[in-house]
Design goal:
single chain, alpha+beta, Beta Polymerase, domain 2, 59% helix
Length: 416
Amino acid sequence: MTLVESARAKKLILDALHLDRSQPDLAAVMRMQAEDWDELSRLARMHRLGPMLHNRLGRSDLAGAIPQEVKGYLKAAHRKHSLRNLKIYRELVNVTRILDAGQIPSIALKGAFLAQFVYAEPGLRPMRDLDLLLKPDQAVQAFERLRAHGYRAVSDGSPEAYFADRIHLPPLTGPGGISIELHHRLTPPDRQAADFENGLWARSISKTVGGTSIQFLSAEDLLLHLCIHATLDHQLDLGPLALADVALLVEKHAIDWPDFLCLVSGGDWQHCALSVLYLARRHLRARIPDEVIEALGGVAGDLAWLEAAEYLLFSDSDDHKLLDYDVQDILYSGKFSERLSRLVSAAFPPRFVIARHFPVSADSPMAFLYYPRRWYRLVSGKLPALLKAHAGRKQSLRDLSEHRRALCGWLRRTLR
């Protein structure tokens, strides 16, 4: 795959997600070669773009210029996610009713609102799983209540162990196979964001889904959550879908920009918001006012973050999964002492990390007996995949590491 072929495919994807429904034009589609369409299909699969591309490239004036196999894949992706989203919404109604019966309030996050109330139809916005926000003092109660109703935890570990450095408890799998993540917060645990976290509940809104009242984030809270989630949580490996979420949310729901900027400044999230909003405006013509971009710091001076963000927007999500922070620092830290320190930390993590994966309490001395099992999982599971990827894609992994460091370093400059 040459840079030219990759660039043509990426440009067509961004044009297809553009708020201007006349984009892309026929000339851009006609310039695509067989290799370009292969790359477009690969990126669509990786970043869950099939339904939107089916919708946007299905115009009558473009139909004859798109290869049949590509049209077939996009149509199949649209159907697949339309059916899956129906299952997820049934699960949302069921889970909400179970929690309501136990007097446990919840807020449905991200895709559950976007697919139903932002996108033109639910099947256009794929969802991997169902995300719910719980109040921290009720999260474990909700977890156990769902388990009592047939939901299965994917980990033998203790849900309490996830409070130290995770924003959600271990995933649960429902009887219908849908994965559910119960969040006890939306912002990283090392951040002091109590005002934002507590205010989410008072500002939440109610919508009816399947005859059941469901709580969702307000438009302003959702917009900020999307920015934080795409950057700090995922380093933009969510791909262009993250920009489409923002562009369509702003298009469909009136944002109170002064309130939004107040939320941003209250947590020093300026760079998180600026990076996503600017990219959404640059590529999709999201209707972000100039004064909002300026209030967030504007785009001037050192633009190394922008180069990194553009690279990460289409980066390989599988590489991101392999290159977690422990692996990244072990392989690519500048000093040998730093790499050795990270390796020791990965091999001998705090006991709460052990308690997340194994049936033992974090404060139990028996936790130390599970370290050999952790080593075995790392050596037999992740290490072979990492070695294989490193042998074949060493330079791409190094490039990914450098761009993630650049973006994350810039993001944290405004964080207290």
